[in-house]
Design goal:
The structure is a homotetramer.
Chain A: H1 20-36, H2 44-51, H3 55-61, H4 65-74, H5 88-104, H6 107-119, H7 122-150, H8 159-176, H9 183-198, H10 201-211
The structure holds a DNA duplex (31 and 31 nucleotides).
Amino acid sequence: MTGMDLETKPKTRAGRPRSAESRRAILQAALLILQTTGYRTLTIEGVAAKAGVSKQTIYRWWPSAGYIVLEALTSDPQQQPMPDTGSLYDDLLELIRPMVRALAQRRGPVMKALIAEAQADARFAETLRTTFMQQHRDILINIVGRAQMRGEIGFDADPEITADLVYGPMLYRLLNGHGELDDLFARNLTASAMRLLKGTPAVTRLRAEAAE
Amino acid sequence: MTGMDLETKPKTRAGRPRSAESRRAILQAALLILQTTGYRTLTIEGVAAKAGVSKQTIYRWWPSAGYIVLEALTSDPQQQPMPDTGSLYDDLLELIRPMVRALAQRRGPVMKALIAEAQADARFAETLRTTFMQQHRDILINIVGRAQMRGEIGFDADPEITADLVYGPMLYRLLNGHGELDDLFARNLTASAMRLLKGTPAVTRLRAEAAE
Amino acid sequence: MTGMDLETKPKTRAGRPRSAESRRAILQAALLILQTTGYRTLTIEGVAAKAGVSKQTIYRWWPSAGYIVLEALTSDPQQQPMPDTGSLYDDLLELIRPMVRALAQRRGPVMKALIAEAQADARFAETLRTTFMQQHRDILINIVGRAQMRGEIGFDADPEITADLVYGPMLYRLLNGHGELDDLFARNLTASAMRLLKGTPAVTRLRAEAAE
Amino acid sequence: MTGMDLETKPKTRAGRPRSAESRRAILQAALLILQTTGYRTLTIEGVAAKAGVSKQTIYRWWPSAGYIVLEALTSDPQQQPMPDTGSLYDDLLELIRPMVRALAQRRGPVMKALIAEAQADARFAETLRTTFMQQHRDILINIVGRAQMRGEIGFDADPEITADLVYGPMLYRLLNGHGELDDLFARNLTASAMRLLKGTPAVTRLRAEAAE
DNA sequence: CATTAACCGAGACGGTACGTCCCGTCTTAAG
DNA sequence: CTTAAGACGGGACGTACCGTCTCGGTTAATG
């Protein structure tokens, strides 16, 4: 404090600090409800009761149930690993296959619910998109980038379009339920992605075409 | 499906017949609410009030709000046309481009809402999948089939996978909002579909691989 | 019903009729709570729960808890009797003494609560005043009127002022608690009322004085 | 009250002393809320916010909102004066008339609220009774006492009963609202009190009667 | 051509959850 | 040791809709 007390510090506000214990209890209660009776039965009142917490405490920190679930999921320690085998195909398969498997099992219902929630709440949609969804896109984009560095594929391949073509069908099957989310599907997705990444001239041509 | 789907004569029972006027008023009220304040605010009570109809009348004919909306949309006269230009690429583009445009405009919000609704209601999900969604898949599958007939592409191309790769990314962008639903995106989708359909050996190989 | 169907009838509206059973259960539950744990613990939620009724049903028919209690009390069969002994003093004493006794016992807390409620709710205040309170004033006014008819007291006595001087001190002791609500007090009240009613010229003189 | 109310030196303990500034701000905020939006909307949180004070500070010094209001009112400089005209009638009228006028105007709502509050809080009721209420009773009792000293009325008149008969109807009209709180009413009260004080034998006789 | 069964509007019902308000208590940092 | 700030568990509020249940009244095919 030698003069110059510019408030660059995070402004250690007065007042009782947020209870880490309550936060933990809330997230855990939400996860428990999610796993036992599903998202449909997850209510703020239910979470509050199970966590031994007042509703107000929940509303103070989360705008709606979706945010709680999202935070519970993303603060979950088991993160999606970043595959790095040295081979584009293997990297993709190691990314896509476990993801498809997870969606076919316990992650499916939660994912459905979160996406459904996002359709009616623009703010939550943005949060979901920029955190959870983007994390997964980033992994794939990183894989493609490394393959370009290695010279395995050309620099004209568009990682964004590739991400659409991998995650799009995955979500489509999850949400519409017209086909299985199995290993065959995972391999097909991988193969399709490979094919589109290997022969890339078409994409660049399209961009030029659009610029007309 | 060899004709005779009259399920043993529905036995036109006595009593007052269903009011066509009420049905019309209900569907119209639902559409009006959808267009003005959105699906979130669409409640059975609201529709009943706006249509000047009792709640019971609605519950007698529709299981939930989603079904009303679905019927309101599918009874809408403007149907998706079946493109038939003689060229696979042009057929695909004429299918995909208007669809993307529609989703980018007024169809988007309703589509989001229907899909969201389906995630919490398995029965509605099936209805949505087997009617609305399947209609669109069928058009694409038909286009691919005709191209195979013409010899433009081989018979080993998998129309189902193609449908996934076209509609998946479209829904993904609609629901996640990470990218534009514009003409460039439509052309990219079309180009990707073409590439995957033209060089097809990989897919068949994968099927064999899975059979091991 | 010989022609002439003028709608003097209470307009038998459509829709499910009000449930007499629910009404009864609500009033009974309110009384029970009142007698066991007191007005302070009487909440709409509590009444609804104890009556096996939804909150909405209560709110549909009563604006607040006070109205329920008021109705429960006034629909109670045990009414205040109208004394008629032929003597003004005895009539007054038979009116005042049991009333004071009741206030000193179980009626006291409820009365306090209703009056307290009325101070914060003008609409309820009017209801309380024009029903419960006025009923009691009317009995006293009637007693005084009959004494005037008998010639026991003059016609210049003001029954309204008398009512103030009888009920005022009673409520004052109830609400302020500075003195006992016992038989001595009842007799003092009665004697005071008698004295004021017997020698009445002063009151008329005051009225003339005010008219100046 | 013979001076020396220093209760054995309060042992001026260490630590930050009570903030007179906060006390003033709290009382003022309470008064402001009372005058603008009424007692119903007066909450501890509201007072704290308006006074720029923490809730804890309020709770440290006042048990509930009622006490704050009571202190705010009694610390108000304008005290009820003690009339001393040498005439019992004039003393009474000069006491009663301004009091009735005050209740008819700005004092009414606050008084209602304080009495209402007292009905649900025995501790506050006692405080209200032994301070504010008793002060007013004492003035009247003092007036009557002086008249007895002067020989204007006999010593068998009961000042306590008289206080009941004056303040009772006043409160009754205030709380029940069945009649005006105007000058005519004030004069009637005064006249009634005079009549009861002048001819007193009845009261003593009653006491004897009760002792049987 | 009367019966009668199914329909219709209105609207009350038991219920669940919502999001808000305020309570009285507590836990910080600052003075 | 007090203060401002503000988070905490808790309780009740009044509202919105849910899906069901009576009512009084239509409306057409059937007997």
